[in-house]
Amino acid sequence: MWKPKTPIVIAGGALSDQEAWWHEFRSEFYDRCDGAVDREWLDMLTFALYPLNTDRDPRRAAEVAFVTLRFEFPGDES
Questions:
Q1: What is the DSSP letter of 37?
Q2: Region at 56 (left for phi over 0; alpha for psi -120 to 50; beta for the rest)
Q3: Residue 40 φ then ψ, to 5°
């Protein structure tokens, strides 16, 4: 399981490893979208991807997710 190198402290409390992963993933994804992403949608994406990426650096996972989501399915050319 991924762990932050140093504890992430918000509002005086250290985040758990899972909370830290979520925080780092969302921060990176939000930055890559220049803030133009719905927070609720981003929470759902984080929830869906976390179980598949618990051992991966969250910022790297956000980078992969961002690049992947920029692709579109080929259109129906009929």
A1: S
A2: beta
A3: -65, -45
Angle, helices 58-69 vs 39-49, to 10°: value is 110
Contacts within 8 Å (CB) and 24+ apart, 40-46 = 46/22
- Cα–Cα–Cα angle for 14, 56, 50, rounded to 5 degrees: 70
CA gap 47, 42 in Å, rounded: 9
Would you write out the chain's pLDDT as a tens digit for each of its 78 residues?
Answer: 999 999 999 999 999 999 999 999 999 999 999 999 999 999 999 999 999 999 999 999 999 999 999 887 777 665
